[in-house]
């Protein structure tokens, strides 16, 4: 019974977090509701519950669609627990909890909750983290620990607007800015002026912090990038320009949280049962409840069918399911 009570409480917390992140109005009221339930559940007083809450926040931060104020709201929630985080976890434990999210790590460093020491700097410069551009992104914090050859190499890519760009945490290429804002007319003008092919891939950026866009060091295509950010006008323009729709687009579209794009794919790209299960899993990982329900209602005969995804539900801390 105690476990059921705990799960019910965490579900309630998850719902309030998502409401706070997704609702564009009533900021203060939604924040008060969220902090009220966090106090009621005594999250501050229980290290295990606090750790579960931090993992939930991390999973949402890593995969959920980012509205313009998404990270400022995530930071607001984290600030609520600064004292408890520093009291309950060592410096390395804090890094270990949030190591998969460059944007949160940067915030914790700036707020003096996390200190970069030799051990963490060494971690950030191993091959795994190099693939995600950690040495470049955290250059100011780790430069005193870098070998001369790596230091020299990284200094070449440090620009005057470095701080602003890494705080933004998005690909700084101009075409990416146009796609993220779904500026269709400017996009058309730019690709014509710069002679960019519509089948082109996005150039990598050291400022990118979206995990799917960094995964396997793979460069997404223009249409994948548009799907990822839910940029419906540019997506439809590329489709009308006869850009081929591929299975990979589904995962990007789920991150983009635009049901119009997903329905467009449903109509134009038939996927098999295995692919649908993968898409449902991805929506669970993103904590996109509406998209998950769409897959349940459209592709699953019974809700119980989705429990093939039970492990992913637990791994993603998506207690709603």
SSE string, helices as H and strands as E: HHHHHHHHHHHHHHHHHHHHHHH
CA radius of gyration is 21 Å
Largest sheet: none
Strand content: under 5%
Mean pLDDT: 91
**In which range does the helix fraction lie?**
55-70%
Q: Can you tell me the overall shape? A: globular
For the terminal residues, how far apart are their CA atoms? 19 Å
Poorly predicted runs are: none
Counting helices, strands and paired strands, the structural category is mainly alpha
Helical run tally = 23
Please give the number of β-strands: 0
Give an account of the 3D structure.
By secondary structure, this protein is mostly helical. The chain has helices at 2-22, 27-40, 47-63, 70-79, 82-88, 91-98, 102-110, 118-124, 127-130, 134-137, 139-142, 148-155, 162-168, 174-180, 184-193, 211-214, 222-228, 232-240, 248-256, 259-268, 273-286, 289-299, 310-315. The chain is globular, with a radius of gyration of 21 Å. The model has no long low-confidence stretch (mean pLDDT 91).
Concise overview:
By secondary structure, this protein is an all-alpha fold.
What's the topology here?
Elements (H helix, E strand, L loop, with lengths): L1 H21 L4 H14 L6 H17 L6 H10 L2 H7 L2 H8 L3 H9 L7 H7 L2 H4 L3 H4 L1 H4 L5 H8 L6 H7 L5 H7 L3 H10 L17 H4 L7 H7 L3 H9 L7 H9 L2 H10 L4 H14 L2 H11 L10 H6 L6
Question: Tags for this entry?
Answer:
single chain, 321 residues, mainly alpha, 23 helices, 64% helix, globular
């Amino acid at each position: 019974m105690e476990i059921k009570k705990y799960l019910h409480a965490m579900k309630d917390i998850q719902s309030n977090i998502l409401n706070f992140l997704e609702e564009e109005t009533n900021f203060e009221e939604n924040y008060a509701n969220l902090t009220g339930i966090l106090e009621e559940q005594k999250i501050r007083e229980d290290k295990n519950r606090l750790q579960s809450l931090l993992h939930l926040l991390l999973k949402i931060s890593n995969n959920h669609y980012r509205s313009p104020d998404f990270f400022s709201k995530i930071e607001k929630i984290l600030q609520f627990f600064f004292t408890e985080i520093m009291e309950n976890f060592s410096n390395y434990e804090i890094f270990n909890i949030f190591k998969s999210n460059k944007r949160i790590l940067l915030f914790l460093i700036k707020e003096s909750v996390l200190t970069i020491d030799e051990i963490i700097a060494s971690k950030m410069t191993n091959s795994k983290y190099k693939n995600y551009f950690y040495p470049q992104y955290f250059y100011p914090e780790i430069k005193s620990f870098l070998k001369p050859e790596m230091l020299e190499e990284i200094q070449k890519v440090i620009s005057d607007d470095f701080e602003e760009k890494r705080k933004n945490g998005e690909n700084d290429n101009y075409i990416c800015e146009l796609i993220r804002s779904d500026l269709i007319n400017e996009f058309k003008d730019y690709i014509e002026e710069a002679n960019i092919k519509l089948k082109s891939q996005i150039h990598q950026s050291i400022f990118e912090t979206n995990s799917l866009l960094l995964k396997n060091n793979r460069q997404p295509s223009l249409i994948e990038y548009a799907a990822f950010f839910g940029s419906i006008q540019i997506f439809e323009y590329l489709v009308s320009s006869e850009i081929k729709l591929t299975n990979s687009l589904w995962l990007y579209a789920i991150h983009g949280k635009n049901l119009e794009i997903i329905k467009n794919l449903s109509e134009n790209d038939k996927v098999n049962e295995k692919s649908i299960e993968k898409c449902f899993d991805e929506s669970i990982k993103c904590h996109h409840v509406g998209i998950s329900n769409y897959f349940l209602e459209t592709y699953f005969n019974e809700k119980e069918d989705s429990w093939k995804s039970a492990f992913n539900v637990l791994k993603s801390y998506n207690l709603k399911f």
